[in-house]
Amino acid sequence: MEESHTKMGDLFPVNIPIQMLAITDRDGKVTPLWFRFETEEHHIEKIDIEKTISRDESNSVGIREKKYICSAIICGERRLMELRYHIENQKWRIFQFLS
Amino acid sequence: MTSDRYVFHIDANSAFLSWSAAYRVSVLGEKTDLRQIPSIVGGDQEKRHGIVLAKSVPAKKYGIQTGEAIVTAMQKCPGLVVVPPDYGLYVNASRAFINILKQYSDNVIQYSIDEAWVIFDGFESLYGKGQMVKFAYDLKDKIKDELGFTVNIGISTNFLLSKMAGDFSKPDKVHTLFPEEVEEKMWVLPVSDLFFVGRATTKKLFSLGIKTIGELALADEQMIKAHLKTPGLIVQGYARGEDLQPYMFTHDANKGYGNSMTAPQDIVTLEYAHHLLLSLCETVGARLRADNVKISVIAVHITTYEFFYSNKQMQLPSYTDVTAEIYCAACKVFAQLWDKRTPIRQIGVHTSKVQTDAGRQYNLFDMQRYDRFEVLDRTVDEIRTRYGEDSIFRASFLQSNVSHMSGGLDKERRSGITIGIDVDRENTRII
Q1: What is the pLDDT of residues B264-291, one digit of tens each?
Q2: Of these residues, B46, B68, B115, B271, which one is catalytic?
Q3: Beta-carbon neighbour count of residue B51 at 10 Å?
Q4: Are B286 and B381 spatial neighbours (Cβ–Cβ below 8 Å)?
Q5: Going by C-beta distance under 8 Å and a sequence separation of 6 or more, which residues neighbour residue B348?
Q6: pLDDT digit string (tens) for B120-178?
Q7: How many CB atoms lie within 10 A of CB B349?
Q8: Bridge partner residues of A68 (DSSP)
Q9: Are B23 and A95 inside 8 Å of each other by CB?
Q10: ipTM above 0.85, yes or no
Q11: Which chain B positions have a beta carbon within 8 Å of A61's beta carbon?
């Protein structure tokens, strides 16, 4: 388990900005649909989000972010990841892989 | 004052370090927490600002002190982690911190970037008698949960005592210091721990045989006054638990305007010294004109590479705010001050005898171009306010390794801290 986590971290960079398509409901609820980013080999990698499991907000050190725990199928495996949206600069990023 | 009025002093524990640490852990997702390992926030060593700005608790155990050189800190603890400061982040954290306090009380008085007083008046009827300590714990934990850093809270009925209480022991603690507890909790502390007692006052008090706050409180007033004048009576009042004077929270008009800088490399030539003096005079002149004041005394001070300090001043024939005139005088003073051999590390220009609406005394032997210089300076100031500080500057600074306006806060800091605090000051109550 631990091994695949490090492997995942190597394959998919965390903390870099990603291009995101998300839907915003009439009540303001945001659901990420898919995102893409450029790998080190300059391939564009597109990830479809299967399900948004939970939503949260944080204001750590005064930086307001929306947190989304999502699942997606990556290389045939189901992965849990935490995506974050920085409210002030309006950028999305992968924060971490949870599985 | 009613008995229902409480004053909290709330202070972020090693603010810069814990803000950087919290950012790295909860925003960047890093695994190591700087607060758990020996680490410091340090200035830029290349610009020779290499001092310790904040330290973690483990770093403190190695005897590392705020303000000492990074080099000596590294000698004390070889594995020390040094991170650069991030002033933008600190302003953000400070604002969020003050905003949480404002959710509870409209009487928030921010004292510095990382500490504030909050007055809770009539809160006992809301939270119940004797529940203010419990409330303080909740507030402390709320800040920790929401913002990710710890604070100390000092509870009392006045400003001074709450500040003293906040400093008792750290981090992440709540202390009380009510007037009836002063004797037991505050009088046993060394006198140097008292608010407003610095190194010089401590030395004087030591020579009078006063070592603890209690001894100062009980000392003879006449003796204190004879040796320390009025400031002595004020700190003696503090030792007895009297509150801070309201003038602590107001800003007096400046008695002088000065700027200094540590040179990026030691000054060994006259040209380079003049270059830096011009850069400092630009800043001083702009500040004078911004406050609509003129000065008539100019002083220059230098610190040599061996940290010897010396200064000299001269009186001008008339009041002025003209950069060129200040620079000219500064060069003259500097010529008398420097032996042209000893490398200089730090240089500063200070002006005093401040006057508002001073007219000009024309001099028979002057070139009498000052009126035109005044117009020129004001035009330059206007261009800089409108289009940015770097929109116009003297050509001699084109290839220079120093900013055309030196001294004061670094650019990165200025844009952050000062603006941050000023904005909040507008909203906070001046008592």
Answers
A1: 888 999 999 999 999 999 999 998 888 8
A2: B115
A3: 18
A4: yes
A5: B258, B259, B260, B261, B280, B300, B301, B302, B407
A6: 888 888 887 778 889 999 999 999 999 999 999 999 988 889 988 988 888 899 999 98
A7: 31
A8: A55, A83
A9: no
A10: no
A11: 19, 22-23, 26-27, 89, 92-93, 96, 147-149
